[in-house]
């Protein structure tokens, strides 16, 4: 039985071209980019070529890209080091109640250090209110960290509007773009973004590889202490194969390719919704399917069947889906995103699954998912009826 992989919001399979690039660089480019001899210069050239490719993808300057180990390090650096560097200007931070744990846990840490954090609420479609944001902003606000796309329900935040509001405010603007990068149109200059986090493994690139965009106007100390790599902004010998692989993944995401994927993914969503409706499955979409939503994520409330049972039965059928964020689903903890949207006592909290699409998802995969989900629901409901 082949595996049907529908958890691309958690991670994606590495592409053939990225794997080939990694193998080549691991074998042939093993020099340290900080050295002055030939092998080091060769590594340095690959490092800077990769930096240029990635900078262009978000309309940044090359020297505004700092390579990291991934989204979590980038998020932690942006939040914690900004708070520490700007505490003389104020102690207030604004974020949302549905951020990834890589943002929420640093926020909790900073609260223990005396910072005030406002967690903006969301509506039942996973969207924040700009009026709530404006009301929360005050003279003590030094940082706003709001994700571009939510990883569990796919809601799209008003990044451009927030950046425009903050243009005349002292607060720096950080966005976790891990789920958006590779699909969304990201322009850090247009949207007045000061700091931005991404991760390579969400776009068929290597794991343990990401970057933090830092505007040249932003001055924060290195989060990782040691050597003077990355222009003294992130210590540690650069991962040259990882950077080359990341750049290869980015280069494959041309504008026509991104548009084609969006269209395909929206088609998959409609295929699932129409298929489950045709089979008379009792379900609802958590969030929205037609506005302010990323096409690659579909969160479904399968009424009356627990997340745990649904996941396990789909797994037995060879289908991989999630119960929410990959960082919490393994522990079967209730989704903080769904709690923020619907309240802690809503049955959706323990009866929802997340389906997410990627480069290698096919229409046949979706047909199989709909068929197996229908069989599982009917089988479980028949048992309950006895």
TrEMBL record:
Residues annotated as domain Aminotransferase class V: 4-369
Keyword field: Iron, Iron-sulfur, Metal-binding, Pyridoxal phosphate, Transferase
GO molecular function: cysteine desulfurase activity; iron-sulfur cluster binding; metal ion binding
Gene3D superfamilies listed in its UniProt record: 1.10.260.50, Aspartate Aminotransferase, domain 1, Type I PLP-dependent aspartate aminotransferase-like (Major domain)
Cofactor requirements of the protein: pyridoxal 5'-phosphate
InterPro entries named in the record: Aminotrans_V_dom (IPR000192), Cysteine_dSase (IPR016454), PyrdxlP-dep_Trfase (IPR015424), PyrdxlP-dep_Trfase_major (IPR015421), PyrdxlP-dep_Trfase_small (IPR015422)
Pfam families reported in the protein's UniProt record: Aminotran_5 (PF00266)
The reaction(s) this protein catalyses: (sulfur carrier)-H + L-cysteine = (sulfur carrier)-SH + L-alanine
NCBIfam families: PRK02948.1
PANTHER family, A to Z: CYSTEINE DESULFURASE (PTHR11601:SF34), CYSTEINE DESULFURYLASE FAMILY MEMBER (PTHR11601)
Homology family: Belongs to the class-V pyridoxal-phosphate-dependent aminotransferase family. NifS/IscS subfamily.
Name under which the protein is recorded: Cysteine desulfurase
Species of origin: Fructilactobacillus lindneri DSM 20690 = JCM 11027
Lineage, uppermost ranks: Bacteria, Bacillati, Bacillota, Bacilli, Lactobacillales
């Amino acid at each position: 039985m082949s595996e049907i992989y529908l958890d691309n919001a958690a991670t994606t399979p590495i592409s053939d071209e990225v794997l080939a690039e990694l193998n080549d660089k691991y074998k042939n480019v093993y020099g340290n980019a900080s050295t002055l001899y030939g092998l080091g210069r060769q590594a340095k050239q690959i490092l800077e070529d990769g930096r240029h490719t990635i900078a262009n993808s978000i309309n940044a300057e090359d020297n505004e890209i700092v390579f990291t180990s991934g989204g979590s390090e980038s998020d932690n650096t942006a939040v914690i080091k900004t708070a520490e560097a700007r505490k003389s200007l104020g102690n207030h931070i604004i974020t949302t109640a549905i951020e990834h744990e890589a943002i929420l846990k640093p926020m909790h840490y900073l609260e223990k250090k005396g910072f005030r954090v406002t967690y903006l609420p969301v509506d039942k479609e996973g969207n924040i209110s700009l009026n709530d944001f404006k009301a929360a902003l005050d003279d003590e606000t030094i940082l706003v960290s709001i994700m571009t796309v939510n990883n569990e329900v796919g809601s799209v935040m008003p990044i451009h509007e927030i950046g425009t509001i903050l243009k005349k405010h002292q607060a720096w603007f950080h966005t976790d773009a891990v789920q958006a990068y590779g699909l969304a149109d990201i322009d850090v200059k247009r949207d007045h973004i000061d700091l931005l986090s991404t991760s390579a493994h969400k776009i068929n690139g290597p794991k343990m590889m990401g970057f933090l965009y830092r505007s040249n106007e932003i001055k924060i100390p290195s989060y990782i202490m040691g050597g003077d790599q990355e222009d003294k902004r992130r210590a540690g010998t650069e991962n040259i194969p990882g950077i080359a692989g990341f750049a290869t993944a980015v280069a494959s995401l041309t504008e026509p390719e991104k548009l084609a994927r969006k269209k395909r993914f929206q088609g998959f969503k409609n295929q699932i919704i129409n298929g489950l409706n045709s089979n008379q499955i009792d379900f609802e979409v958590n969030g929205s399917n037609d506005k302010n939503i990323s096409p690659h994520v579909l969160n479904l409330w399968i009424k009356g069947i627990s997340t745990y049972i649904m996941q396990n039965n789909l797994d037995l059928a060879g289908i991989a889906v999630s119960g929410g964020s990959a960082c919490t689903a393994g522990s079967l903890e209730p989704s903080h995103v769904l709690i923020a949207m619907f309240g802690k006592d809503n049955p959706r909290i323990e009866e929802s699954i997340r389906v997410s699409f990627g480069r290698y998802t096919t229409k046949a995969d979706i047909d199989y998912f709909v068929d197996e989900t229908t069989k599982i629901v009917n089988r479980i409901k028949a048992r309950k009826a006895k």
